[in-house]
Amino acid sequence: MERNHIIGFLLIFATLFVWSYLNKPDAAELERRKQLQDSIANLEAAAIDTLNTEAVSTDIIRQEIKTTLPDSILQLQNAGLYGPFAPSSVGEEKEYTLENSKVKVTFSNKGGKITSVELKEHTKQIRERGKEMVEEQVVLLDDPRNKFEYLLPVASAPSGSVSTEDLYFDAKVKGEEIVFTAKTNVGGNFVQKYTLSEAYKIDYAIDYRGLERVFDAKSNSIELNWENYLHPYERNARFEQQYSAVYFKETEESVDDCGCMQDDKKVLDDNKVDWVSHSNQYFNSTLITNTSPFESAVVESVGPSLGEDSDADHMELLTSVMQIPLDRGAGNYEMSMYVGPNDYYALSDFNVSLEYIIPFGNSIFGSINRWVIRPVFDFLSKYIGSLGIVIILVIFVIKMLLYPLMYKMLHSQALMGALKPELAHLNEKYKDKPQEKQMETMKIYREYGVSPLGGCLPMLIQMPIWYALFRFFPASISFRQEAFLWAHDLSSYDDFFHLPFHIPFVGDHLSLFTILYSISMLAYTYYNTKHMDMSANPAMKYMQYLMPVMFFGFFNTYASGLTCYMFFSNLINISQTVLTKKFVFKDEKLKEELRAKKAKPKKKGGFQQRMEEALKQQQDIKAKKQKK
Known about the structure:
Layout: H1 2-23, H2 27-49, H3 58-68, H4 71-82, E1 95-99, E2 103-108, E3 113-126, E4 134-140, E5 147-152, E6 162-163, E7 170-174, E8 177-183, E9 189-196, E10 201-207, E11 221-230, H5 237-242, E12 245-250, E13 255-258, E14 264-268, E15 273-279, E16 283-289, E17 296-302, E18 316-325, E19 332-341, H6 344-348, H7 363-381, H8 387-401, H9 403-418, H10 420-429, H11 434-447, H12 456-472, E20 495-503, E21 507-511, H13 512-529, H14 538-555, H15 560-583, H16 587-599, H17 607-627
Helix pairs in contact: 2-3, 7-8, 7-12, 8-15, 9-15, 10-11, 11-17, 13-14, 13-15
């Protein structure tokens, strides 16, 4: 057996020797290779000699070499890095544009991607401290650090993939269409095709037919890496940052977000993904699948700290990594892009629930905004040019619809005011016994059929509407840059007074709508409670006046549409209260009503009786503690 092994090895070595001899290059080929290597060495040496290597970085040296060497030599060098895409690894970056009446889209042949989208009908307002306000056009996707790259699974590449960010595409523009082609040396090409449709929609497709043999046989997807640095477009950048997020929709699931209100990261590998949207407060860039959903995705949102001392040059970094199914039979994949404003009707036209990226809120509050408040405002806006007038009209309609409940609240307050003489003797009798006084007060209320909580129902019913509006005004683009009275933008704060310094929790401005709202709230609180006896709980007397001050600090940087709503709502509340109490409720009639209520037999049980029992139990516990 050892002899057979030796003979086998000798035959193998002989075969290799004969194969090497027959395939060795001839003298002409050896001379050509030597000349090529000498040319590369001479050109590299010449390029390096022209640079000050002590002061210039390695990257600059490499760039200088790249611009000096002929493309054919560079392609030969890059063959080891880019495999069959070596012919597209060198070139010169050029820009191309497509535009319609709404947008101007700029492309680069380096990577075959969009480098900016100018929205012709939207501007951003910039006001530096002490200077006049200026307007600039809104431009999306324009940060040079942005990425929109495919990692093509090329088996022969050292890293296992080739990034389209490194490739120079040939571009052909025809009408509203531009086609980018990354050529290979194996016959197939990687193609990206953009077609600017109506308004803000872009039809987008990739084609990789002919590349099946160079793709890794084990790979069943192409990775798309999308990184988007968002810049502020509104004056309140901190508030805008809270509404910046990656929204997405998994197949058969509802719309969700990653990063709204805080940094976040989500791995979406349980379900396929229909679309991914990079959205801020009023604008978004969205990629929608048409052929089939993404196989999976990883989305992330990271925002820098924004403040007076912040040196951040962006507002939020949104990242999405999607896996596109690799269909070797079809060889292409179709998508749609939307790059534009968060317009409810434009987004809903896609019929993929894209309108849910507008941050109207969740649960019942979002439903109220989408299906009640938004349609009402849109309907009235068709016939009324000023959205400020629309706000006042909506307030009037809501107040009139709720007036029956308002009447009940005022009636309860009037009855309690009429009972004040009956309660006066309790102050002296239970001067040092607040719990006993409160219990006796509840007995008198029950005796006369008066409930101190009778006025709470209107407030409770209005709370969902109020909270829905709290989310509606800063989310609806209809109010963006809409002026009313002294407010330049109902979607942002009205900086009526500019301050040369920054106040914590207030900012560098004073909002006049917020000031007027706080004053009206103080006046309304004083008028409503001047007949109420708060001796049992004096802290409440001061707390009610502290709340408007706290609200001023909170709403001073909020959307002026909301503070405008709250101010005029308070004005109507005060008007309804004063007029009703002055012309509807008369003291004699109230006293007659109280006497009639007192004469009626009382039902046992009820909230007041339970409250009395609770107060009595507290009194007993306190008495036992005092005895101990």
